[in-house]
Amino acid sequence: MAHQVRAPLSVYMLADHLDAALAAGEDLMARGGDWRALAETPSDPGDFIVRQRAVAEEVRSLELMLVARVLKARTHASSLAECDDRFRTIAKLFVSGTAILLDAVEESGDARSTDFDTADDIVAYVRSRGLIAPDAPTVRVASDLTIDDNFLVAKRIALGPLLDMAAAFLDALDVQYDLFGGDAPATSNARAAEFDESERVRLN
After folding, report:
1. Over 80: is that where the pLDDT of 101 sits?
2. 188 to each of 95, 102, 120, 180, 184, how far by Cα in Å?
3. Which one is predicted more confidently, 46 or 165?
């Protein structure tokens, strides 16, 4: 029986951040479904405002969590690229592909972006995430609130490709180190399955 190479601590930390980023992304989509369902269900205007604000704040919190996990993963990916040549290419692709999120750190410190005190604040947030057109004055139909692969995380990068990068990296780590004992996270498997084999980075 072949001896399984034990993964260094940095690999487990990287995998943890990637897995958490994937989970945050899936939760983000789920909360988008809740938001859409809320808009589709007639209710008292006052109650709707309160509930919509709560959902919007949860969506924003999950988005910030996703960004934080990806940025942490970038740090560990850079370290891994320096000590393990097998992961140098995929690590550099992940780091370069997520560099656009670095500018989001400063913006996330702006408290006004998370307050959602008025309907205008929510519309501005929805618009900036690509859910409605840049010139759309308001949310016209409930389906506008659908959060899918096209959602612009931190106004910068589409959610789908971001999760695909994280899933591909996590899948590569698991293949090499068997991190999950043959039972990789379902989210990772689903995302990785969407990649064509020709686009996968081979670890030889």
Report:
1. yes
2. 18, 24, 36, 11, 7
3. 165
Using alpha carbons, select from 169, 170, 148 the residue that is nearest to residue 159.
148
In percent, the amount of the chain with pLDDT more than 70 equals 80
| Confidence check: pLDDT of 203 > 80 | no
Strand partners, 153: 157
Which residue pairs, CB below 8 angstroms and at least 24 apart, start in 184-191? 185/19, 185/22, 185/23, 187/19, 187/22, 187/23, 187/25, 187/26, 187/163, 188/18, 188/19, 188/22, 191/22, 191/163, 191/164, 191/166, 191/167
What's the pLDDT at 191? 56
Who contacts 175 (Cβ-Cβ below 8 Å, separation ≥6)?
A: 203
